[in-house]
Amino acid sequence: MPRYCFVNGRYLAHRDGAVHIEDRGYQFADGVYEVIPVHQGRMIDATAHLNRLDYSLAELRIAAPMARRPLEIVIRQLIDRNGLTNGLVYMQVTRGVAPRDHKFPKHTDSALVITTKQTKPVAASLLAQGASVVTRPDIRWQRRDIKSISLLPNILAKQDATEQGAYEAWLVDEKGLVTEGSSTNAWIVTAGRDGKPVEIVTRPRSHDILGGITRQAVLALAKEQNLRLAERGFTVDEALAAEEAFLTSSSAFVLPVTRIDGKPVGSGKPGPLTQRLREIYLQYADHTE
Ligand code: PDD
To answer: Taking residues 265-273, what's their average pLDDT?
Structure first.
């Protein structure tokens, strides 16, 4: 089946998709992106992803490349043309093409690229064993709530993780608190010992983290189940002493984390609450767009 992409108003064969050498995304990373998961042919939380795209654009004063409704139609078209059943829609918007100059160009249209990618489900062995993470200092800028295409610290951290045989890197701020993963949000389930209740913990939304759409859905679903939630920071030591840990993202959904820097979390096996949240999220994904 031919694969298409959408570049500045045109559907093109994927291999022919290209941007100008003076695109500000290419030259300055002056742009933002979104990743929308597609599950059984339907997008998960498309509206929330497009709202976050609008937010990222507004924060950087980049004009929206298209109105919402036509944009939704283009995305749907691309999913259908590419026969995408399970995978990701990737969208990138930059401030456009202009002679290289740091300040904003005056009369430039935003540039838009959309691609899709079929992905395999998370391997059964990874789900059964859980993921390992390594910790790294969070050396990113102070506006991580904006989904900027400038991802050098993220890719360096992920590369470190990969070279250590780990799935993800958890980034730690100057106070010793975990912010998030290089491309995922980070969670723990605290031990309910000494009369303390079990609590699902993740860092609150702020400029310090990307407000994950999967994170938001999992919080809402956990609340519906009357599970105890706490949006606060946690240290690596607290994560190691936790009963369970997991991560969330558009590509991994809910994935157990069983080792941090080579040490086991809880029993070292995926925890029951994490497994339950993954199942609940998958049921939700079956019925949403
Ligand atoms: N990453 N934190 C960061 C830094 C991310 O890049 C992502 C998403 C998340 C999870 O957000 P969401 O649940 O909305 O996917 C958290 C995407 C998938 C990526 O960069 O490919």
So the answer is: 96
- Alpha carbon distance 58, 119 (integer Å): 30
- What is the amino acid identity at position 150? S
Q: From residue 168, how far is each of 33, 50, 64, 181, 247 by CA, in Å?
A: 20, 26, 32, 6, 9
- With a CB cutoff of 8 Å and minimum separation 6, the contacts of 283 are none
Q: How many helices (H) and strands (E) does the chain have?
A: 8, 15
- Here the tokens at position 107 are 């009369």
Calculate Rg over the CA atoms of the chain.
Answer: 20
Q: Which of 103, 147, 175, 269 is catalytic?
A: 147
Ligand 1 in reach of 214 Cβ (< 6 A): yes
Would you state the pLDDT for residue 289? 72
Residues 6+ apart with CB under 8 A from 69: none
* 184 within ligand 1 shell (Cβ under 6 A): yes
Confidence category of residue 287, pLDDT binned at 50, 70, 90: confident
Q: Say whether 147 is catalytic.
A: yes
Give, using CA atoms, the residue closest to atom 19 of ligand 1.
183
| Residues paired with residue 88 on neighbouring β-strands, in sequence order | 37, 117
pLDDT > 90: what percent of the chain?
96
